[in-house]
Amino acid sequence: MGSTQPLGAGAAWTDEALLRAVRTRLAAPPLTAGARALSFAGEHGALWIAGGLAASGVDRARRGRWLRATAVVAGAHLTSMAVKRVVRRPRPRLEGWPPPARTAGRHSFPSSHAASAAAAALVYGRVLPWPPAVALGAGAAAMCLSRLVVGVHYPTDVLAGAVLGALSAGAGRDWVERGRTPTAAAVAAAGAAATAQTSPGGAATRPL
Predict the structure, then answer these.
(1) Rounded distance between C-alpha atoms, residue 48 and residue 3, angstroms
(2) Handedness of CA 83, 89, 94, 99 (dihedral sign)
(3) Do the beta carbons of residue 99 and residue 67 sit within 8 Å?
(4) Which of 133, 122, 5, 120 shows the shortest CA–CA distance to 51?
(5) Three-class SS state of 92
(6) What are 152-161's pLDDT values in tens digits?
(7) Which H, E and C letters describe 128-193, residue by residue?
(8) CATH numbers and ranges of domains, the chain
(9) What is the rounded distance in angstroms from the CA atom of residue 160 to the CA atom of residue 34?
(10) pLDDT by residue (tens digit) across 46-69?
(11) Is the previous residue joined to 30 through a cis bond, with omega within 30 degrees of 0?
(12) Secondary structure (3-state) at 62
């Protein structure tokens, strides 16, 4: 059995059961290989940060917006790393299902991949026209799912990371759009809200 501390017994069982269901149903080699590739590309937010920087070089007319949006994505990733150091939830360990991918750290909550992916989908999506924005959103969702397919996060880790990324994007929205600097309180509130809503130590996960 994997450790999901400090979740309650019922919630812990649900979290682990959902992860096991994903791993057993999406265990086909092509899916696992794709998930590993996505996970590798998203390590440290590299895929999204590199994409934002590349877009800033191509789209000169909106270079400032792209650079600010990229900074928001990087900020979401760094915030998730800080929360991990506080929560210190161990990675999943499912008996009979060793993870097919390595991780950069020992802690699981929240998923930094999900945080950077959600932030990128939202802040870049406001700069892009809608067809690429929809494709970007689908790619971000696939990135989040990949962390379950390779078995290195519980579902609540991914949910918390996505919430954190969304809140970070919301906190930085005015800055990205008009160059207005988000207050430190807004940034701090985004991280605190994500932790309070989905923390494994909380009373319950709020539905989104």
Answers:
(1) 30
(2) positive
(3) no
(4) 120
(5) coil
(6) 999 999 999 9
(7) CCHHHHHHHHHHHHHHHHHHHHCCCCCHHHHHHHHHHHHHHHHHCHHHHHHCCCCCHHHHHHHHHH
(8) 9-198 (1.20.144)
(9) 23
(10) 999 999 999 999 999 999 999 999
(11) no
(12) helix
What residues contact residue 69 under an 8 Å CB cut-off, 6+ apart? 52, 123, 124, 126, 127, 172, 176
Alpha-carbon gap, residue 153 to 92, rounded angstroms: 6
Query: Residue 25: is its pLDDT beyond 70?
Result: yes
Place of tokens 């969702």: 141
Taking each helix axis as running N to C, give the angle between helix 46-58 and helix 63-87, from 0 to 180 degrees, rounded to the nearest 10: 170
Cα–Cα distance, 117 to 119 (Å, whole number): 5
Report, in angstroms and rounded to the nearest whole number, the Rg of the chain calculated over CA atoms.
17
Distance CA 146, CA 143 (A): 5
CB-based contacts of 126: which residues, under 8 Å, 6+ apart? Answer: 69, 133, 173, 176, 177
- In the chain, the percentage of residues whose pLDDT exceeds 70 is 79
**Residues with Cβ within 8 Å of residue 152, at least 6 apart in sequence:** 39, 91, 92, 99, 101, 103, 108
> Using CA atoms, how far apart are residues 131 and 110, in angstroms rounded to an integer?
29
The backbone torsions φ and ψ at residue 90, rounded to the nearest 5 degrees and listed phi first, read -70, 155
